[in-house]
Amino acid sequence: MAVRKNLINSEELKSILHKKNIIILDSRWFLNKPNKGLEDFKKSHIPNAIFFDIDKNSNKKKKLPHMFPEKLQFENFLNKNGITQNNLIIIYDQEGFFSSSRVWFMLKYFGFDNTKILEKGFEGWLKNGYPTSNLVKKVTRVKNKISENKELIKDKKFISKNLKNNDLLILDARSKNRFLGKEKETRPNLYSGNIPGSINVPYTSLSKNGEFLNYEDLKKIFNKKMLSKKKNIICTCGSGITACNIILALEILGFKNYKLYDGSWAEWGKK
To answer: Catalytic: 235?
Structure first.
């Protein structure tokens, strides 16, 4: 049940697709292909879905890729798309668990808890032969007044200051070879390697065939890392996207002491 609270499958979504309080966010995002998500959305998407552009809905004042948006910016997105905290928000990406967890965490940061991620993503929806559309949903503008939980995000200064603190645990969602510096980083002007003392938990190890692992299997992964609910757990990755898959896993396991290093290796690894 802990897992299902945050997830929904295609069959379940199809059965509630007609309900008025449902908001569906298409969060398809492709590394180094900033326009592909929107292009794919325009061709075909789940009926009544709204496109959530991770790059567009980011803080442009910061010289790092897709950093968390400011509160007013996110509020404007919600308002113009008719999204309130009364809605059940379903998020999907292309495969299930790549960028959808980022949007899930973003909503959580701004006080939206009635959210679920679609297992197997758009690919799974298509494989089931369920309906798609290329029409843009007509929405009624609303007025939100949202809050933000600033404690959920930590910056480079905080991590540098606490790096030798035994209460700090850093989990890195990148692939093993990137973490170990055996594989070149996908972005230019970055060193290879990892934050000193960090532990590798590849985001791909948390799901299989587009479905998140069950509670017991997740528990085995994190027990190996000797996690403690008393520690400050910092989640990082290449640029703050896939780290949110670790956060989702921790949430499912009952942890509340997680934080996101939003700058991630795009900031820490700068030459």
So the answer is: no
Domain that holds residue 106: 4-127
Domain count, the chain: 2
Q: What is the pTM of this model?
A: 0.95
Look at the block and give the residue holding tokens 């790096």.
163
β-bridge pairing 207-208 and 199-200: unpaired
Strand order in the sheet with 258-261: 153-154, 258-261, 232-236, 168-172, 199-200
Q: Catalytic residue, from 91, 237, 243, 247: name it.
A: 237
- Residue 144 domain flag: no
Question: pLDDT digit string (tens) for 97-136?
Answer: 999 999 999 999 999 999 999 999 999 999 999 999 999 9
Structure tokens at 183: 């594989």
In whole angstroms, give the CA distance from residue 65 to residue 233.
22
CB atoms within 10 A of CB 271: 6
Query: Is 140 domain-assigned?
Result: no
Pairing of strands 211-212, 207-208: antiparallel
